């Protein structure tokens, strides 16, 4: 039984800790232990390939030649968890409603004792790297990687590969076209050789701005808030400005100028958040590359202009590495992602604590994720970066998946942007989703286009798939195929992950499909940000699925806060992997009256003076003129639809639905809050009254046991292992 295995493993871990404590104090230059393994005919230890290490993008790139052999390169060796099968089953059981182990999480220390690589394995790997002439770094406690730096020549000799330069679009990258080799005696302990290639440089921040913020009029421009017959400025709410000098393809309530960006009060109005929803007591971790030291000051200036309080002392923290190499990546885009994420959390969960986990650069963003999971301080983690799924190697995906499995077991909810490139066909040549959102161990967040009135009340919500049309002889018509797609949430069916249990019978596909949920993300109806620009501080609209993911992360923090304040003894302080719960809530609810609102296409248009397009390996290109964007216009293969769809997933959150995110789905004995009106419940109940009743049932049901983050080392309930269908 699973619990017996775990208890036995924990006892062994404690004994090993006592036995090896003195051994851990030896210097890093001590001789490495012998590496047992198969021996070749020449007496040398055989080297075994780490299969699946070549990234998919190499097959589509142009080889430019060899890499300078004297160049320095930092690599990391990812170590396998002990008993990975049990680790996965544990994460599956604590995440699945109806199991006795549901939300009975372990701590980071418990995970390390149960499944972390043992000290002897780490010592052997470090010794092998040191003996090979590499400069080995001291690893932080609890991590599953060993980092080292060496010359290209040293790395090529050590791993038996040739590191070449490639061109993908306009981007120059380094990679090997064969799998690296490691000593046979270490192969079972090594799952990946990370950063031997530049794949993670292709992971772009999923932030989107509808125009160059330097040129687009500020919301403070005279008359910007008034509906005028020939207005060309941005609208402060839907149709507050509508350019009547261009053809009116849609009726007045369905055509608007591009918005200036919704204010915090309007965004909260869209989701009908009560003042009590603040995220207090929760910590949200934001994962990205680099650290913009100006971001908190920009966020404070934005907060003051938005009528919010500045960050409280200690509310915002950074947990970043110091060896930044800013020339390697698009620093400005990552900086915008950081400030947008901070301001989005301040909007949805203004009292939540925030930690920015920034990697040294964009070549090792997964390292920032590992730092956040190992620290285990944040109850919710938001990933705002993405790349086509096929570009990742199988070993890199597996390494990140292991981090996500650990996060699920620890009760950390991890959400990820699905990307802003629609079906990615203009990037890869065929439709495919993005990673890491396509991992079954993460909640992929798509994006919506929201038309809201001045108070934030939605007039309609559609999927974000924007098709550009241009005026010709008094009519709007689609532009050419290269510019008709001007942004949209990514999604679709994975080609590498089987369909997880929680999606079975809801999606007609044999593989994992994304997204799972959606939030505001269309930059033409996005959120108003404040950030530093070359000309100084500016206020402008921004969006993207990075915004949507962060807004959803804030909503989870609100849900945990509201439930925790209701009854400390019978509600979770963490929620873990949300997907099984989300899909069960969807099954339990009736159409349009559940906690998730089904998003469907709406005939509407947004006028804008410019649009941007992207293609593989190239920066966004701006096109200026007069455009009408067809909302959810299916410019590629994706569009919202009844039920689950590849743009918005199950849909978007309804008014008053936050508590259901962390409640027990099988306790749905009351009707869910209806969509119409602020937190309107059957019989006119206040939504908090409804929440109390649900929690009261949870507390008294004999089949429901107290849940919560297991800092008290509560043992897992005995139950036969339940096998997941998550992996390839």
TrEMBL record:
GO terms for molecular function: metal ion binding; serine-type endopeptidase activity; tripeptidyl-peptidase activity. Keywords: Calcium, Hydrolase, Metal-binding, Protease, Serine protease, Signal, Zymogen. Residues 1-32 form the signal peptide. Residues 221-230 have a biased composition (Polar residues). The keyword NAD does not apply. Residues 261-665 form the Peptidase S53 domain. Residues 207-230, 703-728 are annotated as: Disordered. GO terms for biological process: proteolysis. Its cofactor is Ca(2+). This is Pro-kumamolisin-like protein. It comes from Labedaea rhizosphaerae. The lineage of its organism: Bacteria, Bacillati, Actinomycetota, Actinomycetes, Pseudonocardiales.
């Amino acid at each position: 039984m699973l619990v017996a295995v775990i208890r036995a493993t924990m006892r062994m871990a404690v004994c090993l800790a006592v036995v090896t404590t003195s051994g851990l104090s030896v210097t890093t230059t001590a001789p490495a232990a012998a590496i047992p393994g198969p021996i070749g005919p020449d007496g040398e230890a055989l080297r075994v390939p780490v299969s699946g290490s070549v990234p998919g993008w190499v097959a589509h790139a142009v080889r430019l030649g060899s890499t300078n052999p004297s160049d320095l390169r930092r690599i990391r060796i990812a170590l396998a968890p002990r008993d990975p099968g049990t680790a996965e089953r544990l994460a599956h059981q604590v995440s699945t409603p109806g199991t006795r182990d549901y939300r009975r999480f372990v701590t980071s220390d418990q995970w390390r004792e149960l499944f972390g690589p043992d000290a002897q394995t780490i010592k052997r790997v470090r010794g092998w790297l040191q003996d090979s002439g590499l400069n080995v770094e001291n690893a932080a406690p609890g991590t599953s990687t060993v980092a080292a730096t060496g010359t290209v020549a040293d790395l090529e000799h050590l791993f038996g590969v040739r590191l070449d330069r490639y061109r993908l679009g306009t981007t120059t990258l380094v990679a090997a076209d064969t799998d690296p080799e490691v000593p046979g005696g270490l192969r079972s302990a090594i799952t990946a050789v990370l950063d031997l290639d530049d794949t993670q440089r292709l992971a772009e921040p999923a932030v989107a701005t509808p125009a160059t913020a330097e040129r687009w009029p500020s919301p403070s421009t005279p008359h910007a808030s008034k509906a005028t017959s020939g207005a060309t400025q941005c609208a402060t709410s839907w149709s507050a400005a509508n350019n009547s000098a261009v053809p009116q393809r849609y009726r007045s309530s369905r055509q608007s100028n591009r918005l200036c960006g919704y204010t915090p009060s309007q965004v909260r109005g869209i989701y009908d958040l009560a003042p009590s929803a603040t995220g207090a007591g929760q910590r949200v971790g934001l994962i990205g590359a680099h650290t913009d030291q100006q971001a908190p000051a920009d966020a404070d200036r934005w907060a003051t202009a938005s009528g919010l309080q500045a960050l409280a002392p200690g509310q915002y923290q950074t947990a970043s590495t110091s060896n930044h190499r800013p020339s390697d990546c698009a620093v400005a885009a990552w900086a915008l992602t950081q400030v947008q994420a901070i301001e989005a959390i301040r909007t949805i969960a203004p009292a939540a604590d925030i930690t920015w986990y920034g990697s040294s650069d964009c070549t090792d963003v997964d390292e920032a994720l590992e730092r956040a999971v190992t620290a285990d301080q944040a109850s919710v983690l938001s990933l705002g970066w993405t790349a086509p799924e096929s570009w990742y190697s199988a070993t890199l995906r597996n390494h990140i998946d292991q981090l996500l499995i650990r996060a699920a077991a620890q009760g950390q909810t991890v959400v990820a942007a699905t990307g802003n490139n629609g079906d990615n066909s203009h990037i890869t040549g065929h439709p495919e989703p993005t990673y890491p959102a396509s991992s079954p161990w993460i909640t992929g967040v798509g994006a919506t286009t929201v038309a809201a009135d001045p108070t934030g009340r939605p007039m309609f919500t559609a999927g974000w798939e924007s098709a550009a049309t241009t005026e010709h002889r008094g009519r709007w018509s689609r532009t050419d195929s290269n510019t008709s797609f001007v942004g949209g949430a990514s999604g679709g069916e994975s080609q590498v992950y089987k369909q997880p249990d929680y999606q079975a019978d809801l999606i007609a596909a044999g593989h994992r499909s994304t997204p799972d949920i959606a939030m505001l993300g269309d930059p033409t109806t996005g959120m108003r940000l404040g950030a530093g620009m070359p000309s100084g501080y500016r206020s402008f609209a921004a969006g993207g699925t990075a915004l949507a993911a962060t807004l959803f992360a804030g909503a989870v923090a609100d849900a945990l806060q509201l439930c925790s304040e209701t009854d400390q003894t019978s509600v979770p302080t963490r929620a873990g992997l949300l997907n099984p719960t989300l899909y069960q809530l969807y099954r339990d609810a009736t159409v349009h009256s559940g906690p998730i609102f089904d998003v469907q296409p709406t005939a509407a248009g947004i006028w804008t003076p410019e649009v941007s397009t992207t293609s593989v390996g190239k920066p966004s290109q701006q096109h200026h003129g007069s455009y009408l964007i067809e909302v959810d216009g299916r410019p590629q293969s994706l569009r919202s639809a009844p039920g689950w769809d590849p743009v918005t997933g199950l849909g978007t959150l309804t008014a008053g639905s936050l508590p259901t995110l962390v409640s027990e789905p099988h306790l749905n004995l009351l009707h869910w809050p209806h969509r119409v009106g602020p937190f309107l419940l059957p019989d006119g109940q206040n939504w908090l009254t409804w929440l109390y009743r649900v929690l009261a049932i949870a507390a008294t049901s004999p089949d429901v046991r107290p849940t919560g983050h297991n800092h008290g080392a509560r043992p897992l309930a005995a139950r036969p292992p339940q096998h997941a269908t998550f992996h390839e």
